What does this fold into?
Amino acid sequence: MSEPLKTRPADDDEGAETGSRSKRKPFGWSTFIIAALVAISAALVWRRDGLDGVWTILSHDVSLFGEIMPRVLAGCLLGGLIAAVLPHDKVSKSLGPESGLKGLLIGTAFGAILPGGPFTAYPVASALLAVGADFGATIAMVVSWTLIGYGRAVAWEMPIMGADFTLWRIVISLPMPVLAGALGRFVYVRLRHRFKL
Amino acid sequence: MTALLIDILLWGSLVGVGIIAWRQDKTVLTTALRKGGIDFVNIVPRIALGVIGSGFIAAIIPSEIIVGGLGPDTGWLGVATAVVAGAATPGGPVIGFSIGAVALKSGGGAPQVVAYIVAWALFAFQRVILWEIPFMPARFVWFRCAVSVPFPFLAAAIVMVVGKP
It folds into this structure.
């Protein structure tokens, strides 16, 4: 907890650099893997269920895509705005490497109340990282969004798994964002130089 | 209904933060919106592929095999299987939760099902590749996934101690 202060600016530069580099190539190897997986699956569906089967799935997914698009746009704009609005110095103080348990708790609370799905969580987390949050607080935020955030729980988990299971699962998950953030911080400080994180 | 509520919250927060940016400086607002817009244009091809393609992947995955691996007598090996299965489950929330629900109804063990759901939530590969990596620095994403590995096991351990709901 003593040295991160002086290395933090370099951190941010690297983060910004990696971010813009990955944005310049929207089709990387990961997209290629998914594309191959989709093509194989579609071929298998076609062999099993014929063209009708392919068409049913395709039309359903295209309408789902149309439904999601405006939300993706909202998420991207929200990420851009949050990165612009949040004061760099305050964020690095309350969510940076020196922020301690309080920073992890703020990250957790932020992830839990954030509206929307992956289309908001990741742009906003990326924005936090860019304006001075450390890996630990950002991990707490992302893990909190995915494990105790209400968005997916209310929209998907409760209807499918039932309210009892969902609430019980969330209660069990409550300590995990802070623990994950703390573990992240602990490991990051020790491994960052060895793995050039 | 819930979708509408989420939309209202989402666009409401966008307008709220937009007003804050506009009050600070109008150029802050326009620059931020332009940056967000460019992100959106860059991300759309990947999202299109993921959302439109995931239905095909979901249609061919052998969910019976996943469900069968989550039995109550499988112990820690079953928990480990559940973690791998959660990470490997393609498609959106409907698929992940449906597999969990079927496993629970067909007599799956509670620790194994919880480990499956938590692992799926933390690092389902399709979400990581299609959503998290495009938006965030890749080194952060891999680091976060690695750090998250113990938590499905922790969840299963808690369930083993405190029991079912």
About this structure: Chain B is about 85% helix and 0% strand. The mean pLDDT of chain B is 88. Chain B touches chain A through 85 residues (CB under 8 Å).
